[in-house]
C-alpha cells in the first residue's frame, strides 16, 4: 500500500496468493484484500470498525470482528458478510491479533471473548461457521487469553493464558 494511514492485522490466504488486512485510511478500521496475482487491492468492508481478519482454510471466507461486539464472516465469492454471533472484546490495540481461529474442516470458529455477565477475563468460545449459539469451551475464572489455534486434526484448541495468581 502507499497510504499514510496505519495498516495492521495482516493475514495470508492458504495459497499465499492474497493477504487481508485492516486499514484506517477512511477514519474507520476497514478490511482490504490484496491479490498478488492480479496486483489489485479491494476494500471488503465499509461499515463499523472491522479487525482481526482470518482466512478460512479453504480460502472461501474471511472471519473478522466488527465493533468489538460481533463475529462476522465475509464470503469472498458472493462479496457478502453475515453475523455469526454477538460477543464482548476490546477494540485494537487491546485485542490480540490471533483472537479468531478456524477449525481445519472450515466448520467451526474459536474466538476469545469476555464473560458477558462480567466483561472481564477472556476465555475461549466456539460457534458453528453456519451461525447459531456460541458456547464457552474454557472456564478459567481469572485468565486473560491472548491467542489461540486448533490442532491440525481439529480435536482440540490451544490458547495461551496470563492467569493471575495471588497470595
Total helix count? 0
What would the average pLDDT be, to the nearest integer? 89
Q: Strand arrangement, largest sheet?
A: 1-2-3-4
Please provide the count of β strands.
14
Molecular structure report:
The chain has 167 residues and is mostly beta strands. The protein is 0% helix and 46% strand. The strands form four sheets. The chain has a four-stranded antiparallel β-sheet with strand order 1-2-3-4, with no helix packed on it. Strand 13 and strand 14 form a beta hairpin. The mean pLDDT is 89.
List keywords for this structure.
single chain; 167 residues; mainly beta; four-stranded antiparallel sheet
Q: Would you summarize the structure shown here?
A:
The chain is 0% helix and 46% strand. It is an all-beta fold and 167 residues long. The chain has a four-stranded antiparallel β-sheet with strand order 1-2-3-4, with no helix packed on it. A four-stranded antiparallel β-sheet has the order 5-6-7-8, with no helix packed on it.
Could you give the topology of this structure?
Elements: E1 7-12, E2 18-23, E3 30-35, E4 40-43, E5 50-55, E6 61-66, E7 70-75, E8 80-86, E9 100-102, E10 108-114, E11 122-128, E12 135-136, E13 145-150, E14 157-161
Antiparallel strand pairs: 1-2, 2-3, 3-4, 5-6, 6-7, 7-8, 9-10, 10-11, 11-12, 13-14
